[in-house]
Amino acid sequence: MRIAFFEDGCAENLAPIAWTRPVFELICGRWSLRERCVHVMRRIGDDIIREWGALVRPYLADVYREAHLDARVNDAVWLQQHDTLLINGRWLPSARTIETLQLQHEVAYMIDNTVVAMWIDSTEAALISGQNADQTISQIAATRTLESADGVLIQRPWDLVNHNGEQLMDDAILAPATRTLQTNLDQRVAILGTASDVSIDPRAEIDPFVVIDARHGPVSVDAGAAIQAFTRLEGPCHVGRGSQLFRANVRGGTTIGNVCRVGGEIECSILHSHANKYHDGFLGHSYVCPWVNLGAMTTNSDLKNDYSAVRVPLSGEAIETGQTKVGCFIGDHTKTALSSLFNTGSSIGVMSIVLPGGELLPKHVPSFSRIWHGELIDGWDLDRSLELARVAQGRRDQEFTVAQETLLRFLHQHTRDERMAAIERFHGIRSVRPPKGQTLRVEPQLSAEVPLHSS
Question: Which residue segments constitute the domains of the chain, with CATH numbers given?
Fold first, then answer.
């Protein structure tokens, strides 16, 4: 069986967290979409997936190719060799649907008039190119029996967070977990709820005086994870391979990916991997990308004081979420200094540097920019930022490759207009602020959102 994951024209709607990766590598639940599909299909048969490919935005191809040596990335010749199952990278299907895809060659699965899965033959594959892929795939689907698909089509970054708890519960059923009974742990580790809902790899380290609360959902801890004393894990949640938790309060709906360092309070959030939140501070309803470092007491709001729906400025445009609990979305390699305070529904781009100025930070911090003592300005020297990335990855025994550097240099130019517009808008607003003690009437689109720490 051959399978290819593809990005459609809405992929960049998931910026800033999808600037440096295909949308099907974003995490929801225990795995990314690609990992989940592969896992489910391999449960059906060990050799069911013999080859796989990826159709991604051109500027991501080299980085993705070197990270996945077994994948055929943007390879038109490979795609035309045999029948291939296409899966939309924004689709979160149920395991049951994934299991039936291999049999339904005559069906195009749809959600909201968007193709989420479909088989194509070699002749049809020859019609697909980077310039017209969406249109061609839709035209091919029109020749099939159209069938509504279950699951969710991810539209914006907060969709991943909103569905994370439910997905964690589904993934607990799929995972070939090693069940650890209470008697296998130190007697001073407390398990609340049913022990069978707790899955701890035997290679994980759980200190005494850890509380694992599985009364509201499963809790899983992967190999090499280390959970320090006085940490509380509330299900549904997952702690990834090699991650370390230091006196953390992890609340339900949270995924801590591989090789993260986490302390403080985390609620209903996703730390993709290689993220550092070592110190105290609150992180709620948020998505944090790799190589992000959150300084001591960095905190975000995920709820407005009037409980109204939150808007998030993605690529500079305020997007209505329709949700009351929305935190922040932080792109790769961003660093925050101590006591950084993020407003409800904030978007922080790739490789930004945040040094707070004693007040709430702007909701829109574009890629490669700086918050410098409360002012939004263009980022520091790009070569210096790239060297910092090289050092950060080296500290985790990861190579900062030429392809990664090339991608970040491309994104620096690709996001320039957004960055310049945000800086101009920020200083335009600042210039009309009234003297201390006076009141300024602000138009609704610029109205301040006073946050709550949490509900």
Answer: 2-155 (3.90.550.10), 177-452 (2.160.10.10)
